[in-house]
Amino acid sequence: MLALILYFPVLLTMFLGLSFHNTVAVIEGFLGIKSSFVRTPKYNIVGRMRATVDNAQKIPISNSLLIEGFLALIFAAALVMGVVVQNYGFLVFHLMLAVGFGTVFVVSWRER
Predict the structure, then answer these.
(1) Using CA atoms, how far apart are residues 16 and 79, in angstroms rounded to an integer?
(2) pLDDT per residue as tens digits for the range 47-75
């Protein structure tokens, strides 16, 4: 039970990081916008070994990826600004948002 309580801030941080992506998905669904579903490329996977494919294509950078990176920078700047002006009221919240958006940005960038 104690482990679950200790992991809750990590879970909340990841949920905050996914909030923009989920918001875009809900709005697209509500408006009936057909979004492109990009399937992951399949390789000849045998056990833990994987044969690479020469013609693997990179996914282009999307606007939402750039916005997530921008949000990570905004909340990191808000974190620094809060420390500079000695206003610690939102310190933990800004830290969680900066780490959450930053993690989603880095993971999305690496999968690109």
Answers:
(1) 15
(2) 555 555 545 566 678 888 999 999 999 99
Read off φ and ψ for residue 54, nearest 5 degrees. -70, -30
Bridge partners (DSSP) listed for residue 67: none
The predicted-structure confidence for 83-108, as pLDDT tens digits, reads as follows: 999 999 999 999 999 999 999 999 98
Helices and strands (H and E) in the chain: how many: 4, 2
Cα distances (Å, whole numbers) of residue 1 to 6, 8, 11, 49, 58: 9, 11, 15, 37, 42
For residue 9, give the nearest of 93, 80, 106, 108 by alpha carbon: 93
Q: In the numeric block, which tokens belong to residue 92?
A: 């933990």
Rg value, the chain, Cα? 18
